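Design a sequence for this backbone.
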């Protein structure tokens, strides 16, 4: 087990600073849920309330149907892994991992078995007698995770566990976490991150937090393909989805939008006559913008900057006058377009429509 139910959960710090309201969320045992959202939106606060490190000021938190609001952290069946791994420097890896079990007065056999099992899961068997200072950052974070595994919690909470690691270690440790999840399929994991790739690759479902509440919950690709509003559309995906203002000038199975900058967009989002003339933003992901020589264009712009990333090149169209600049992500052969004026288009199935911030969905 390890079901988490949040009902109308809210948080106000010091009776004055309201940071979260009406959080309703059902997390099933065995799910890996990732919280994302702009800085300061309350991701850590929500995680810390689940852990019991922060008081819940409104609503209820249940674990497996039991109200947890006033249950101390140690009795919630939860383990938390932090960004700073905080290992005991004078203890070996084995001692660090065994510490909580020793405090709990478990038998030596039980402790040894739990430590060996965690070390195997995290590929730390060869490092058990080393001190933390003789480990890489990634290995230290694995020891910190190991320390939580030995306690056999129902629920793991991760607060940006990889953010102190360099790029290569981040990838390696992310893959470790994905593997760990496979090995412990019945354990619930709740994970806070700023990293798009971590969110997209690890999550069963992503929870996007914004404006003190939940902006959208869904499987990573569901959020990517059908964002409910402009906030989610521009938050999920990197670089962010491009937005261009315009007005609906033809409705039906294919909607036509005449853009303020003069271009024409066609979208397979279906509209009705009642939508005629509505002010909308069209949204197109950078990877769906394509250069074209003939036909209608969404916009024509000069490529101010190109960033060649190896497999792809990013083109920045700063002269189109939008803020932020429009960005296209094209295969690498397009780096020669720097300084050129290019007509850009997108297939209708990749053109999203947002009316007053909310998405008009592909049907
Ligand atoms: N102890 C506190 N007292 C008052 N306000 C607080 C306290 N802790 C956090 N806050 C405020 O609550 C809001 C949410 O903070 P929180 O750390 O949960 O956000 P976050 O989404 O995790 O941010 P980040 O992505 O930057 O880590 C912020 O505006 C923060 O300033």
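Sequence:
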């Amino acid at each position: 087990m390890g079901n988490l139910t949040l009902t109308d959960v809210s948080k106000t710090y010091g009776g004055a600073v309201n940071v979260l309201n009406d959080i309703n969320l059902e997390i099933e045992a065995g799910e890996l849920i990732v919280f994302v959202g702009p800085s300061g939106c309350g991701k850590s606060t929500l995680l810390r309330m689940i852990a019991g490190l922060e008081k819940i000021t409104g609503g209820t938190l249940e674990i497996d149907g039991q109200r947890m609001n006033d249950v101390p952290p140690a009795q919630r069946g939860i383990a938390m892994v932090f960004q700073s791994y905080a290992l005991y420097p004078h203890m070996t890896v084995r001692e660090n991992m065994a510490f909580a079990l020793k405090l709990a007065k478990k038998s030596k056999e039980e402790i040894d078995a739990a430590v060996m099992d965690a070390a195997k899961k995290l590929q730390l068997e060869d490092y058990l007698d080393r001190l933390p200072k003789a480990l890489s950052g990634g290995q230290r974070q694995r020891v910190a995770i190991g320390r939580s595994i030995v306690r056999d919690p129902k629920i793991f909470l991760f607060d940006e566990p990889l953010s102190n690691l360099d790029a290569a270690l981040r990838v390696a440790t992310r893959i470790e976490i994905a593997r760990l999840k496979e090995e412990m399929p019945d354990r619930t994991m709740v994970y806070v991150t700023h990293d798009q790739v971590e969110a997209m690759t690890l999550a069963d479902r992503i929870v996007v937090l914004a404006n003190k509440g939940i902006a959208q919950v869904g499987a990573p690709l569901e959020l990517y393909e059908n964002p409910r509003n402009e906030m989610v559309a521009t938050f999920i995906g990197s670089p962010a989805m491009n937005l261009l203002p315009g007005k609906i000038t033809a409705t039906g199975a294919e909607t036509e939008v005449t853009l303020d900058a003069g271009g024409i967009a066609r979208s397979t989002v279906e509209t009705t006559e009642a939508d005629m003339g509505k002010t909308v933003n069209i949204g197109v992901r950078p990877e769906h913008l394509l250069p074209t020589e003939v036909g209608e264009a969404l916009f024509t712009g000069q490529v101010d900057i190109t960033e060649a990333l190896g497999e792809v090149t990013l083109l920045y169209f700063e002269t189109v006058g939008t803020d932020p600049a429009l960005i296209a992500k094209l295969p690498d052969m397009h780096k020669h377009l720097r300084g050129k004026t290019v007509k850009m288009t997108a297939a209708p199935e990749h053109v999203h429509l947002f009316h007053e911030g909310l998405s008009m969905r592909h049907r």
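Helices lie at 43-51, 93-103, 108-121, 137-149, 167-183, 196-202, 220-225, 230-235.
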